[in-house]
Amino acid sequence: MKIAVIGTGYVGLVTGTCFAESGNDVVCVDKLAEKIANLERGIIPIYEPGLAELVHRNHRDGRLRFTTSLPEAIAEAELVFIAVGTPQGEHGGADLRGIWAVGEEIAKALDEPKTIVIKSTVPVGTNAELARRMAQTTDIPFDVASNPEFLKEGAAIDDFNKPDRVVVGVRREEVGEQLHALYEPFLRTDRPFLIMTPESAEMTKYVANCLLATKISFINEMANLCESYNADINEVRRGIGHDQRIGFSFLFPGVGYGGSCFPKDIRAVIHMAQSRGLPARMMEAVDQVNEAQKDVLVHKVMDHFGNDVRGKTVAIWGLAFKPRTDDIREAPALVLIDALLAAGASLRIHDPEALDNVRAIYGDKLTYCDRPYGALEQADALAIATEWNEFRNPDFEVMARLLRQPVIFDGRNLYDPARMAALGFTYHGIGRAKVSPEECATITDGPDASTR
């Protein structure tokens, strides 16, 4: 098929590239000339494992092209995907100005019937409103479908190629058949292709993200409760996760969620409910719990140093909101950075991919380290905010030598507390009691040690 994708951000570029990889002819459009020029040269604006190789191959083979001209892009397209940003607006709802502007431009450029597909995350009713607005501009027949994305940053290529399900919202059966034919190569393992109304499709995206965010806030609140009672959230998590009604997914305690989806989508749902006079008490609580959880590491660091970190140096491993991405939007690490800088600490930071994005915000306020061990040199403590695989099995002897004080604040529970204490570290996790070498010695060398 011939496809146009409007927007070359995270969703648009992954969508266009994966469609091209399955043999379609795709033109990606963006109004930013510099971004398009860079894509033509093979410079990818985001970090996503495997994406650069796919863009290069499909661009080289002529299946993937880039332009700043929307009329040129949609001239021969059968399907036009809208994948522009819908950031959080002033009152918490989604800012849809980009959707409306693209819709108007498409309507003005239409010279034959086409199917317009909204890929962006949008509030319920956007599909119908876009169709109404476009119909005021053009007499050419068109359809507007909804096709929400369910891509995880860091695993987007696999998610697109091997979807759990594909959801489309249509008003005509023929449009559903057209989209099914497009997605058929991605459904070979009998994953469901779910056809519903556009309103249900729009709501499905929000409900999915709300539920996942709820699970994260739930386990984080339980983690804080466990810690106050000297229970271990990791043991509790195993105790509940083997219940088939519960499972393990998204029940990992930490320092809160971030990124471009969960925070804004939760607030968009709150706004949607309020606009209809409905309460959104659970979603409000999820958001509040998450914002508070981002301060947990701050409190642990400040408590450890007697609420005075002036003259102290803290190393931070992990800046992106999650591993395998360079995305720092709403990242918990930024809350930690802001609080410690305000309190007078010096910071040495490392992330495998996100250093440049953080440097663009903080400039020379931070010391940027290309290697994790480099961040530890002469630091009084290490704080871990993102669970990159590179951090899971470090050389603890090297770490102890480099740190002024062997203190770790682990916001992702990467290490075993007993082992850390035995290695001479004071170790603070999430939802677990603090351990230190002194406490380890008391346990192993106490009067009843021989009977244990």
UniProtKB/TrEMBL annotation:
EC number(s) reported in the record: 1.1.1.22
Keyword line: NAD, Oxidoreductase
Pathway involvement of the protein, from the record: Nucleotide-sugar biosynthesis; UDP-alpha-D-glucuronate biosynthesis; UDP-alpha-D-glucuronate from UDP-alpha-D-glucose: step 1/1
Catalytic activities: UDP-alpha-D-glucose + 2 NAD(+) + H2O = UDP-alpha-D-glucuronate + 2 NADH + 3 H(+)
Pfam family, one: UDPG_MGDP_dh_C
GO molecular-function term, one example from the UniProt record: NAD binding
Positions annotated to bind NAD(+): 30, 35, 86, 121, 153, 264, 329
Residues annotated as binding substrate: 150-153, 205, 250-254, 258, 322
Gene Ontology BP terms: polysaccharide biosynthetic process; UDP-glucuronate biosynthetic process
SUPFAM superfamilies: 6-phosphogluconate dehydrogenase C-terminal domain-like (SSF48179), NAD(P)-binding Rossmann-fold domains (SSF51735), UDP-glucose/GDP-mannose dehydrogenase C-terminal domain (SSF52413)
Residue ranges constituting the UDP-glucose/GDP-mannose dehydrogenase C-terminal domain according to the UniProt record: 315-417
Active site per database record: 261
UniProt family annotation: Belongs to the UDP-glucose/GDP-mannose dehydrogenase family.
PANTHER family recorded: UDP-GLUCOSE 6-DEHYDROGENASE TUAD
Protein name: UDP-glucose 6-dehydrogenase
